[in-house]
Amino acid sequence: MSGGRGRHRRPGTAGPGLTGSGTARPGATGAGTARPGATGAVGSSAPEVLRSGGTGAGTARPGVTGAVGSSAPEVLRSGGTGAGTARPGVTGAAGRQRSKGSREKGSRSGRDRSATSSIVGVPVQAGQRIECDIVGLTHEGEGVGRVEGYTLFVRGALPGERVQAEVLSIGKSFGRARMTELLERGTGGRVEPPCSLFDVCGGCQLQHLDYREQLKWKRQHVVDNLRRIGKLAVAGEEDGRERSSVPQSGDGKPGVEMVSSGPELPSDRPAVIVHPTIGMDEPWRYRNKAQVPIGSREGGLIGGFFEMGSHDIVETDVCLIQQQENEETVRAVKEAARMLGVSAYNRAAGRGLLRHVVVRHARTTGQRMVVLVTNGRDIPHAQELVALIREKVPGIASICQNVQTAETPVVFGEETRTLWGEEAIFDEIDGIRFAISPRSFFQVNPEQTVRLYGQAVEYAALTGKETVIDAYCGIGTISLFLARHADRVFGVEIVPEAIEDARRNAEINGIENVEFAVGPAEVVMPRWQASGVTPDVIVVDPPRKGCDPALIATMVELKPTRIVYVSCNPSTLARDLRLLEDGGYRTVEAQPVDMFPHTGHVECVIGICRDDT
Ligand SMILES: C[S@@+](CC[C@H](N)C(=O)[O-])C[C@H]1O[C@@H](n2cnc3c(N)ncnc32)[C@H](O)[C@@H]1O
């Protein structure tokens, strides 16, 4: 989008393309970083946690908990009524009231409405309107603005733009604001978000940025982290000196540096090559899993997404990044629950039954799974509910119940039982068949998963003679890809059901050269080391928090020729790469793969080799 000047007041109405429908907020899987002003967290791997802040990212928000992570892959989006929902920060009260109409009442709001209005030495006050230039973009899709050296994270603004913004909250180092007016366009590729609930939901943090620009930004985000936190030299174009992706400091907190200033880099090391992000041709409707929080409004059961920055549920049925089959399934389950008077969980009171509806769709087999996450074991009219779901959902193969009674943002509890059908559904990636249980991690974007795993196998550079360890192996997906090219593969994973799936997956695919173990990788790997396992290659694919330092230490001791690191969080990746570099390894290349289009989630695969090879 080109630069011209001119004042643009953002319309407060729904974006085009989806009249009458909108996007809902993702659920979330996995351990993640706490969300803004709320107790919820989202992350990319087990355990599954409830989304609270609504952006789909697991990153803590500035001014709240301080930690920066990134987002969490697993987001349940569902969709919305979308009727004329206003974009926050644009039409203000009128729009928000309309949105409120479809929200759950009585839930806690994560917004800090008593934020400090002024702080000595901070040049802006809460509530003030200011003008600022935007020089960067956080992975939550907030523009990074500067006012007299003070950092403001401005929702709705993009790099290169000059905006008017209303300051929402301030802290000593940074504050938060929302764009009220676009004063000057940048060159950053602003587009109209196709989803009418874009601003309310926040699940797709980057929908207002052209997709090609998103891909460039994701690469830049990796580059910036490798430089700042990993202290690595990075080769290649788009080196980010003038347009940094996200301000971040080495301690994982939102930093105040917005522009890569070219840190002091070691000159004796070859520069790391960071390739352009591999994107999707059609970057919509990709998610194979939805995780919908359930609540109530005026006594009726609703389900959709948590409104950005709060625990308010917005009722909705449409989400543009969700496979349509999942939307249908969620809608059917909600209808069935309403028909039978199933009570919705009230988060404030800790009462009510249905907390979440989690659904999966296996694209290659057409099988669907429903998991009812309940606050207690007894489901009144359970058989009728199962019968209605079977009647309404084509391809349904598994209906399960998971019991979660704890007051926690973690979605799943420990107890899962099958109410009807199979205890797992089956999907295929590149000719390998996988059983997927309710709580097992399975990549949510099947089209991009083939590319991600293909890159991991390529960096492993196997000849058929190698012993390989796959740490954080989930249901054995990467392990089985590797096993086709290796002598032996050892996989380790902390979730017992996932390892049961992994063993079953090896068996149903006739793959015999793999062995799986349950437990923390940092505990199991030293055990393997003691028993004489000497891996030539180690693959790690940790959750957002990265590898345990003990695991890195064991890897360094085991001295594999190559390490392949699959990461969903560039900042913890960069931290771990620094440890590996200090332990005698060299980061050779990085391949970002866009697993989560329109969100701030950045996934990449890194090829690492031992210094003396
Ligand atoms: C990002 S997922 C990757 C799974 C798998 N590689 C895949 O692509 O499907 C990370 C996995 O690590 C597991 N995990 C988390 N902490 C762990 C630990 N300390 N040791 C072993 N596995 C762990 C999670 O349960 C999850 O299955």
Automatic annotation (TrEMBL):
InterPro entries this protein is in?
Answer: MeTrfase_TrmA_AS, MeTrfase_TrmA_CS, NA-bd_OB-fold, SAM-dependent_MTases_sf, TRAM_dom, U5_MeTrfase_fam
MF GO annotations: methyltransferase activity
Active-site annotation: C568, C568 (nucleophile)
Residue stretches making up the TRAM domain: 123-181
**Where are the annotated segments for Disordered?**
1-120, 237-270
Q: What is its EC number?
A: 2.1.1.190
Keyword Methyltransferase in record: yes
**Compositional bias (Low complexity) spans?**
22-41
GO biological-process terms attached to the record? methylation
Chain intervals with Basic residues compositional bias: 1-11
Name the positions where S-adenosyl-L-methionine binds.
Q443, Y472, E493, D541
Report the leader peptide range: none
Keyword GTP-binding present in the record's keywords: the answer is no
Which PANTHER family does this chain map to? RNA M5U METHYLTRANSFERASE (PTHR11061), TRNA (URACIL(54)-C(5))-METHYLTRANSFERASE (PTHR11061:SF30)
Q: Which NCBIfam families match?
A: rumA
Report the protein name in the record. Answer: 23S rRNA (Uracil(1939)-C(5))-methyltransferase RlmD
Organism of origin is: Cohnella hongkongensis
* Gene name linked to the record: rlmD
